Amino acid sequence: MPGADTQWSTWIQNETLVTFKNPHAKKQDVVVLGSQEGAMHTALTGATEIQMSSGNLLFTGHLKCRLRMDKLQLKGMSYSMCTGKFKVVKEIAETQHGTIVIRVQYEGDGSPCKIPFEIMDLEKRHVLGRLITVNPIVTEKDSPVNIETEPPLHALSLG
C-alpha cells in the first residue's frame, strides 16, 4: 500500500499509485501517479540542450510520453444478474428533467446482484427508452431500489 512517511516528503511504493478518471460505458481511463522519471528521460531524448550563464539548463523540443500498464491489477467485485422477481413498490414518478423514477423491490434470493432492466416493445425488437441509473444493484433482499430511466419514446407528450 503506498503512503508517505510523516518524517519525509517522499512516498513509499509510489509506483503503485494510480487514479481513475470518469467511468465510461465501455472503458475506464487510468492515470499512473508513480515515478515518471523514465518516461521523462525518454521524452527528452534528442531535445536541444542550452547552457545558460546562470548555470541552468533549458531543454527544447517536442515532449512525448508513454504509459505502461502491463503490471496494473484492478481489484474489486462484480455481481451476477438477479434471477428472482421484482415488484414495483411505489407509483412511477416523473422528474423535472424529463425522466421517470421506478422504485422496485427484489423478492428473489442471491443478493447482492445486478438488476436486469430494459425498455423494449412486446416483441423485444426495438428499444423504447434508455436507462439513466448506471448499473442498478440490489444490495439486500426486500430493500427498495430507485431506477431512473427515460420513458418509452411513444409515451412522451410534446407541448
TrEMBL record:
It is found in: Virion. The keyword Glycoprotein applies. Transmembrane segments: none annotated. Its main location: virion. It comes from the Bacteria. Keywords: Disulfide bond, Glycoprotein, Host membrane, Host-virus interaction, Membrane, Transmembrane, Transmembrane helix. GO terms for molecular function: protein dimerization activity. InterPro entries: Flavi_E_Ig-like, Flavi_Glycoprot_E_cen/dimer, Flavivir/Alphavir_Ig-like_sf, Glycoprot_cen/dimer_sf, Glycoprot_E_dimer_dom, Ig_E-set. Coiled coil: none annotated. Residues 3-76 form the Envelope glycoprotein E central and dimerisation domain. Residues 78-153 form the Glycoprotein E immunoglobulin-like domain. This is Uncharacterized protein. It comes from Amycolatopsis alba DSM 44262. The lineage of its organism: Bacteria, Bacillati, Actinomycetota, Actinomycetes, Pseudonocardiales.
